[in-house]
Specification:
Helix content is about 25%, strand content about 30%. The chain is an alpha/beta fold and about 300 residues long.
């Protein structure tokens, strides 16, 4: 059958989806929220399940809550990214399935049903929560949801006191924003993230009139500049695979958004070859620090 409701981007050869399928992934800017779908309102759904266990079980529970009883459900994941556990997790939620394998994916086909108590437990386990160790609201599935990742921690130690208008590309739950906004010289900070949940968490975590929030792919966002500064921990994975081009695109976008004399501060894994792109876009580039497999770079336009 052709599915008209979609979560994520399942390989086209594994799932037939309508050209105008409704998208529900929080990683697709503009998509609908599966959390907001009325119970038993969807007539079908195909899901590329997330790799994280807590997030994946919550996604399955949201799907079963949103689907009409007996509606077709197709769920898949790469074998090494949770696919091997899909059938068991669906069974634990009260939804037995038929499991097949193709193109390194496990694929589960089911008619929607479910155990209400198990579904509620999975929804609660993956819901937003206030984490005392961070002092912030967070949620399983958001990048580094239960810790400050080492790269961001190193960047926090070296960020200068900024002034003027700036942005945080890939802001997450607002870790860098708190440090940046300590400076009274900062007049505006645009927080941008491709994950809707991160932006929603920032609404709770960053209470400052100088901030604007954008659920968007930073690479495609228009109208930001000219900016005085940009801070970022650019992603280098897309669709579960390493993508060096992703970080390079972030650098190009930062350069385009900065005024002449503006600065970009970024952290990157030491092995990532960003220097040539930085040199092409900026007149001054310096490595501020190299520690624990990361490098901090300041680039001035």
């Amino acid at each position: 059958m052709t599915f008209t409701n979609l979560f994520g981007a399942p390989p086209s050869e594994l799932a037939a989806t309508a050209a105008e399928a409704r998208q529900f992934s929080p990683l697709c800017p503009g998509a609908e929220a599966l959390e907001a779908a009325l119970p038993a309102s969807l007539q079908n759904l195909t899901v590329l399940a997330p790799p994280g266990a807590i997030e994946r079980r919550r996604t399955l529970a949201l799907a079963l809550r949103a689907l009409a009883p007996g509606a077709p459900l197709l769920v898949m994941a790469p074998k090494d990214k949770g696919g091997g556990r899909l059938a068991r997790e669906l069974a634990e939620l009260g939804c037995p399935c038929i499991e097949t394998a193709k193109r390194h994916h496990r694929i589960c086909s089911a008619s929607a049903t479910g155990d209400a108590a198990a579904i509620d437990a999975a929804l609660e386990a993956g819901a937003p929560l206030f984490l005392q160790s961070l002092g912030l609201w967070t949620q399983p599935g958001v990048f580094a949801w239960d810790r400050i990742d080492p790269g961001s921690a190193l960047l926090l130690r070296h960020l200068p006191e900024f002034s003027g208008r700036g942005a945080d590309f890939g802001c997450g739950i607002g870790i860098l924003a708190h440090k940046i906004l300590r400076s009274p010289k900062v007049t505006h900070l645009a927080l941008v993230d491709i994950d809707r949940r991160a932006i929603e968490l920032c609404r709770r975590n960053v209470d400052d009139s100088r901030v604007t929030l954008s659920w968007a792919d930073a690479r495609a966002l228009a109208g930001l500049g000219p900016l005085d500064f940009i801070a970022m921990n650019p992603p280098f994975h897309e669709g579960g695979a390493e993508s060096r081009a992703l970080g390079l695109d972030f650098i190009d976008k930062a350069a385009a958004a900065l005024r002449k004399g503006g600065t970009c501060w970024l952290v990157a894994n030491r092995h990532l070859p960003y220097e040539a792109t930085l040199a092409r876009n900026f007149r001054e580039v310096r490595v501020v620090a190299e520690e624990i497999g990361y490098k901090i770079i300041e680039a001035r336009k």
